Amino acid sequence: MGVGNQDQTAFEFRGDWKEFFPIAASNLLLTFVTLGVYRFWATTRERQYFWSRTRFIDDTLEWTGKGKELFLGFIMAIAALLLPILGLQFLIQALILQGQTVIAGVLGLGFYVIILFLAGFATFRALRYRLSRTHWHGIRGGSDDPGARYGLSYIWKTLVGGLALGLLIPWSMTSLWADRWNAMSFGPHRFESTPEWGGLMKRYLLLYLVPVGALILGGVAAVSSGSGEGVAAMAVLLVLAFYIVLPLIALGYYAAYFREVVGTLSLSTINFQFTARTKEWFLLFLGNAGLFVLALIVALIPISALGLLSGFGDMQPGQDPFTQNPGLIVGMILAIVIPFSLVGPFIRYRNWRFFIRNLEATGEINLDALTQSQTRVGSHGEGLFDALDMGAM
Amino acid sequence: MIPAWHYDGQTATRHEVGIVAEDDALRLRFADGRTERVPWADFVWHDRRDGASIFGRRSVDGWRIGIPLPMTDLLARRLPSQSRYGGLVDRFGIWRAVVGFSALSAAVILTVWKAPDILAPLIPMSWEQRLGDAMIGDLGGRICDGPEGQEALDALVRRIDPKGSPLRVRIVNVDMVNAAALPGGQIVVFRGLLQEARSPDELAGVLGHEIGHVRNRDVMQALLRQMGLSLLLGGVGGDVGGALNSLLAASYSRAAESRADTYAIAAMRTANVSPVATAQFFERMASDEKKLGKGAIAFSYMSSHPLSEDRRRLFMSSVQKGAAYTPAVTPTQWRAIVDACAKDPDVKEGDLF
Ligand SMILES: [Zn+2]
To answer: Which of A44, A324, B15, B79 is the most buried (most CB within 10 A)?
Structure first.
């Protein structure tokens, strides 16, 4: 069976936000009333929706993970890792306060290395879990690598990447991506990842040039005018450079990085591509930021109504508006929390849609040879990943 | 026989099959005449899409059958029903589950809220002292413990707190207008507060408040409550939990703060120390607050300290006409307290963290 051609893209997202809204809303309600415990089931329901609305060639993906797995994984991660880590952190802070800076420093360094290991380990396990719970045509992915080796290489590659003002970060990012994906498989086939980091350096080095350039330009402006205006111009240039130009260049680098790592990924006879350029990434983030603005507007309407009602307008100093009306504070909190809590699910919706729309695959699939994965299915989700609170993409 | 599609979980090949509902199993008939029997109990519901309900088998990874909708009554009865929210919620229905979970959560919050009131007094003072020592030690040498200053400070503390177990009140060389009660009967006064204070009576009022926290065993209660709540609500996830947490913690501190003020006023009355200076101190603080405008008032509800304006009125109204007030300590002692850090040669200076 042929994969992806001019007439039809291999991946297609057919979701509809009106269809997703009841899922997000009921997730929010249940998460609230269970003090957050339901969020593992909420994540599962979100993914079931995203996956089931994602078509690959002739059938949709299927998410087969369970909320209970994520919940147990989280509990295990808390018990086995997070509590000892918090204890160690407390100890280090106490030592610093007591003036034992040398011991605290040594412990702190060890702490940092452990955190690095866990971050790498967690990233690996999350990918492994996601692949093992993704079915297509009844076939799933997975990995038999437990991820400890990846955790170790994550330590040293991150440290080396940070050397020389972070000049080798493109190398560490691509190399870790390859380490991760080369350990993964789908059905009987291994993923193959062969990204090159050399091509990314041009965009990456721009990140260093901007601050230097802005300083030189600003300096010239300041000297040539020799006045307060020149200094003001320099300040404006610096602010522009740091808050607008620099993030845009970082985005440009990340777009190139993502095109490179996905474009050099293959599974048996299928090659993947990612088409999004900087402009599309920018629009994605702009839209996500727009969701926050929307939430703010939605929150402001009931809040200003409640505020007028309670007479904030003619309040006297020392008077407490809340003591007379405890229902008001609850209303205010709900008016703020509900719209902002719905931003998260919809950002994940937009991110997933962006990811699938820009993902392409070409090649040939032999369905008879795509046999079931023989990798072990771990029972405890991405608990560690969740516990360390790392992002989705 | 009803037409359906099927993946066997062995290969990705899609099979068109016919299905027949039997008494104890579903029979699949393949195009090549082969058949497969699947007991009803082995089915799990998976999805509903493209006009079909999709079921899997518990015992076979990746095994799927897509049965076109609408299904016959017989199939609908035998096959598992659609799962929407997860096992427990599906069983009770979402609204009943919401009510049940809300009641359960309220009970849990109430327990975590009330438990420290009972637990904190049960914790032996020696444990609390050890915890306090572990938490701060000697504050990295930042304590101004020159003999004269400490002696004068101890005299002030004895004046407003003559009875009860001895307290450890110390001056810390940090430029911060504040004082804090810590576990184990320790109280720290920051150098910034001494520089801001204009008389020993002011310091007596502020210290009386902190002593109130110690005597009410607020510190351990607050610590336990904070730990319990952050454990409980940390699970809600970033935004929601964090906001809720700080809010709950603050509304607790508000109650404890006013109890501590009441304690301070009573202690000063017994010691014949005038509350006027403390009220003036709060007035200076309140004028700082006023400069920040109405926003500060709304925010101060969230912050852990009560409104300085409110506190000023409370202290001012406790002044007794005709009382024989005397200064909390002598002018010499007061100088020694204010200069405690300057006179201490081996003290370190700096921020706490
Ligand atoms: Zn207080």
So the answer is: A44
DSSP codes joined into one string, A23-75: HHHHHHHHHHHTTTTTHHHHHHHHHHHHHHTEEETTEE-EE---HHHHHHHHH
Cβ contact (<8 Å) for B89 and A30?
Answer: yes
Q: How many whole angstroms separate alpha carbon B339 and alpha carbon A274?
A: 68
Q: What is the distance in A from the centroid of ligand 1 to the CA of B312?
A: 14
Name beta bridge partners: A270: A267, A363
SS3 content of chain B, % helix, strand, coil (to 5): 55, 15, 30
Residues from chain B contacting residue A372 (CB–CB below 8 Å): 9-11, 61-62
Instruction: Answer yes or no: do B12 and A370 touch at CB < 8 A.
Output: yes
Q: Do residues A200 and A253 touch, judged by C-beta distance below 8 A? A: yes
pLDDT at A392: 36
Q: How many Å apart are CA B267 and CA B259, to the nearest integer?
A: 12
Q: Do A37 and B235 touch (CB under 8 A)?
A: yes
H/E run at residue B155: helix B147-160
Interval A27-47 mean pLDDT: 89
The β-bridge relationship of strands A265-267 and A62-63 is unpaired
Fold type of domain B2-83: PH-domain like (2.30.29)
Q: What is the pLDDT of residues B169-186, one digit of tens each?
A: 988 887 777 787 877 888
A42, closest residue in chain B (CA to CA): B85
Q: Is the pLDDT of residue A351 over 90?
A: yes
Instruction: For residue B265, give the 3-state DSSP assignment.
Output: helix
User: What are the residue boundaries of the structural domains of chain B, listed by start?
Assistant: 2-83, 87-122, 125-343
Point out the residue among B8, B233, B247 whose CB comes nearest to the CB of A35. B233
State the Cα–Cα distance between residues B194 and B173, nearest whole angstrom: 10
Backbone φ and ψ for B29, nearest 5 degrees, come out as -115, 120
Instruction: Chain B: give the shortest CA distance to residue A99, in Å.
Output: 4
Residue bearing the bigger pLDDT, A99 or A313: A99
Tens of pLDDT, residues A164-217: 788 899 999 999 999 999 999 999 999 999 999 988 998 899 888 877 877 787
